[in-house]
Design goal:
single chain; alpha+beta; 2,3-Dihydroxybiphenyl 1,2-Dioxygenase, domain 1; eight-stranded mixed beta sheet; 16 strands; globular; binds zinc ion
Length: 305
């Protein structure tokens, strides 16, 4: 039994429109679900992923309108690492990102940049057998597109404290990384020495990282986490998947999320993310919630009519 790599990564934005313009418009991901934060249904929860809305490529944002910028510190994921296929793909992004006002730093097979709110990303050329998770974008040829998550990097002052929990979750040490590799996908987890300034959550901060569980193994992962000392929540039904949350000893908020049922549970694949989706338990709030949310224009649907 193994976790199937990274399921999703959730971060915070102060501006849903700017967020959609960057991730769907520039980075070429697909907005696959526009819903509300289930713990605070007056704010958006936006999900970007590949064309199918696959776990493994799913970057999500809570919108807290106009929240000040965050600053990552100990206990935070501070960088999202994506796979690309080739050095040509890095060349492409090395041109496309600056053309859209994003500074980049190229170092061999790696290209680093920050989103407009300061969330750090890295594109790396990786040769793995995992299925590439690619979204369609008229300006991004498929062979140059992002192919799903490779890793996250977190700050920890004492990463050894996390060893027992990571081992209970069947992460394996792979060089300087920990790897969660299942039958279909793998994902890496790195620790870096934290900056001296303490963490401040805000726009551009990562809120949590979710690891992917096969449907039938979810409860067992919860028991494993608890047996390794984690204070895990009960299983929470997020409608698109089921979730367990706990903080790992280095302070990073982990989630273990199921690989189903997925985003097509309430809208067809071809129309994912076009309208505000509310899970059944939240549908009664629509009349109250929808007028309070600032409308978001998706550059993808506007460009294709
Ligand atoms: Zn989550």
């Amino acid at each position: 039994m193994n976790l199937e790599g990274i399921h999703h990564i959730t971060a915070i934005t102060a501006d849903a429109q700017r967020n959609v313009d960057f991730y769907a418009g520039v980075l070429g991901l697909r907005l696959v679900k526009k819903t509300v934060n289930q713990d605070n249904p007056t704010v958006y929860h936006l999900f970007f992923a590949d064309e199918q809305g696959s776990a493994g490529s799913d970057l999500t944002f809570f919108e807290f309108p106009d929240v000040p910028s965050g600053r990552p510190g100990a206990g935070d994921v501070h960088r999202v690492i994506w796979r690309v296929a080739s050095a040509q793909a890095l060349d492409f992004w090395e041109g496309r990102l600056p053309a859209n006002g994003i500074e980049v730093e190229r170092d061999g097979d790696s290209l680093r940049f920050s989103d407009p709110e300061g969330l750090d990303h890295e594109l790396v050329v990786v040769d793995v057998d995992d299925e590439p998770l690619i979204a369609d974008h008229p300006e991004v040829p498929a062979e140059l597109a992002l192919r799903g998550f490779h890793a996250v990097r977190a700050y920890s002052a004492a990463p050894e404290a996390s060893r027992a929990l990571l081992e209970a979750l069947e992460f394996e040490q792979a060089g300087e990384a920990w790897e969660a590799r299942g039958e279909k996908r793998g994902g890496l987890y790195f620790y870096d020495e934290p900056p001296t300034a303490s963490s401040q959550q805000g726009a551009g901060s990562v809120h949590h990282v979710a690891w992917a569980s096969n449907m039938g193994e979810h409860e067992t992962w919860r028991e494993r986490a608890i047996s390794a000392g984690a204070h895990a929540t009960p299983v929470i039904d997020r409608f698109y998947f089921r979730s367990i949350y706990f903080r790992e000893p280095s302070g990073v908020l982990f989630e273990i999320a199921t690989l189903g049922p997925g985003f097509t549970v309430d809208e067809p694949l071809e129309h994912l993310g076009e309208k505000l989706s509310l899970p059944p338990d939240y549908e009664h709030l629509r009349a109250e919630v929808e007028p309070k949310l600032r409308p978001v224009v998706n550059p993808r649907t506007t460009s294709t009519g």
